[in-house]
Amino acid sequence: AQSVTQLDSHVSVSEGTPVLLRCNYSSSYSPSLFWYVQHPNKGLQLLLKYTSAATLVKGINGFEAEFKKSETSFHLTKPSAHMSDAAEYFCVVSRNSGNTPLVFGKGTRLSVIA
Amino acid sequence: GAGVSQSPRYKVAKRGQDVALRCDPISGHVSLFWYQQALGQGPEFLTYFQNEAQLDKSGLPSDRFFAERPEGSVSTLKIQRTQQEDSAVYLCASSMGRGRDGYTFGSGTRLTVV
């Protein structure tokens, strides 16, 4: 079985300050991990993915995440928040083989204050 | 096409009415998934196709839900005798092959049952 827990339902940061969105996962198998972003009335967009290669993964728009097996974590970070980063962020896990369903967390809403 | 296309974008149905939601995946994408996203929640898996074969339908919430992909491209999700609890955004995603590389999502169909 696989699951993800997003530790914060809402995070608020000031523009230009760092962003940290926390995610812990549980997986009986070697996992693939993803972060997706969803802007209002828009589709889900893939930010980055971890699939058993480098543990520090760089994504689009300056986001990155580090896979820490010992902590079963995959936190998303960005050094400096921009107003356009305000959106809903989902941490996602799937089995690292074949086509298996993605299991989504409940999401973290990021607000960016000017 | 350039992306995953879903139609209609919005659908209002009276309770008890049947609805059909369409998904046009990216051309050549073998795998197709349907997800249901309730308000304020993360998407939840409904069903999965590889080409025309429905390999997993374990997420369909009741026998009122039915999905097909007869020619391995366009897929239709049908909901019979809609109920208020069916109100949600229905998302379609496709991928070229191995799901661990991530999926491309459509913008979804927002279904409201009144």
Q: How many DSSP H or I helices of chain A?
A: 0
Report the β-strand fraction of chain B as a percent range: over 45%
Oligomer type: heterodimer
The two chains with the largest interface, and their residue counts, are: A-B, 26 and 31 residues
Shape of chain A: globular
Number-wise, the strands of chain B total 11
Rg of chain B is: 13 Å
Mean pLDDT of chain A: 92
Using DSSP, what is the number of strands of chain A?
12
Terminal CA distance of chain B:
33 Å
Record the SSE blueprint.
The complex is a heterodimer of chains A (114) and B (114).
Chain A: E1 2-6, E2 10-14, E3 19-21, E4 23-27, E5 31-38, E6 44-50, E7 56-58, E8 64-68, E9 73-78, E10 87-95, E11 103-104, E12 108-113
Parallel strand pairs in A: 2-12
Antiparallel strand pairs in A: 1-4, 3-9, 5-6, 5-10, 7-8, 8-9, 10-11, 10-12
Chain B: E1 5-7, E2 10-13, E3 19-24, E4 31-37, E5 44-50, E6 53-56, E7 65-68, E8 75-79, E9 88-95, E10 104-105, E11 109-113
Parallel strand pairs in B: 2-11
Antiparallel strand pairs in B: 1-3, 3-8, 4-5, 4-9, 5-6, 7-8, 9-10, 9-11
Describe the fold and architecture.
The complex is a heterodimer of chains A (114) and B (114). With 114 residues, chain A is mostly beta strands. Chain A is built from no helices and twelve strands. Chain A has strands spanning 2-6, 10-14, 19-21, 23-27, 31-38, 44-50, 56-58, 64-68, 73-78, 87-95, 103-104, 108-113. Chain A is globular and about 40 Å long. In chain B, strand 9 (88-95) and strand 10 (104-105) form a beta hairpin. Helix content of chain B is 0%, strand content 48%. Chain B is mainly beta. Chain B contains no helices and eleven strands. The chains are: A mainly beta (114), B mainly beta (114). The A-B interface holds A 32, 34, 36, 41-46, 49, 51, 90, 94-107 and B 3-4, 31, 33, 35, 40-45, 48, 50, 55-56, 59, 91, 93, 95, 97-108.
